[in-house]
Amino acid sequence: MSEFWLISAPGDKENLQALERMNTVTSKSNLSYNTKFTIPDFKVGTLDSLVGLSDELGKLDIFAESLIKRMAQSVVEVMEDAKGKVQENLLANGADLMSFVTHFEWDMAKYPAKQPLGSIADTLAKQLAQIEMDLKSRTAAYSALKTNLENLEKKSTGNLFTRTLSDIVSKEDFVLDSEYLITLLVIVPKPSYAQWQKTYESLSDMVVPRSTKLIAEDNEGGLFTVTLFRKVIDDFKTKAKENKFTVREFYYDEKEIKREREEMTRLLSDKKQQYGPLLRWLKVNFSEAFIAWIHIKALRVFVESVLRYGLPVNFQAVLLQPHKKSSTKRLREVLNSVFRHLDEVAATSILDPSVEIPGLQLSNQDYFPYVYFHIDLGLLD
Predict the structure, then answer these.
(1) CA–CA separation, 185 vs 206, rounded Å?
(2) C-alpha to C-alpha distance for 29 and 189, rounded to whole angstroms
(3) Would the pTM count as exceeding 0.85?
């Protein structure tokens, strides 16, 4: 499974024994793989500052998770033809995400533990905000380029009614620079090829005999040329429509065709040039954002543990990796049973939902007798 449960319990003898019981039960029942999650000794500050920081870190946690999911999705969109290799590009400090989380160590150089907690949180918030701002500008430029290229490519992949004809026709297919004559392009359904050949010269006056030629086909029909005098264009179009032949509005313009081809070449070149730098930026900054996110989780565990268990600071954080989705309910029951002494009232409600406690509304999904945070690494789900 790609999810982890990060919990903490007081570090006194009774709770250390409870942690041992939890490890024994979860191991024997094959419920989860558990490891210690080391958190530095931070400056505690005042109770008021911790309460305010608790709310701030909660919002920052949500923002960080949202950001790394958006970055992971951006990697998918940029890699497009190599989506099977996306996961190997989503790393943290060169390690896969699960390894980074299970071997987490606080980065003292980047986030000095001796600083006030508020300063550390502010550093993390500014770092993530800068990454988001850069992500928006970089991906917007690449997306605009990609959209323009896709629009041009769509023009060359539709049917004969909608696609561009500049890459199908050639100068030799048209009578050009004539004051009196013009070459039209007509789409003829495949079953009507014979009818076209028999009737096109008589659809209107002044159609040049034997001037039709099939120059392209798709599954539904063919694109034919026909040359006639300019003054009978409208009459010819009307008669053609009555016979279920469609005149495509197209006039050969060599400069426009050249411009279109050059635009396609330019966009392909620009996309190729931007691909490498953008992917490298995404990989580097995904790593930075993910690392920051796990540091935020560590900060939240510290703050909530102090608020929940009091001073002096003494708690043990543990990282649990549930073995399978079907065992999470049982794992939660084990944890709530082992640590029910931390909050007997809440634990009673959780373990026995039939017991109603006045003034207390708790859900088995949103309350735990211990400090708990969820880490979901399914960033591409």
Answers:
(1) 16
(2) 69
(3) no
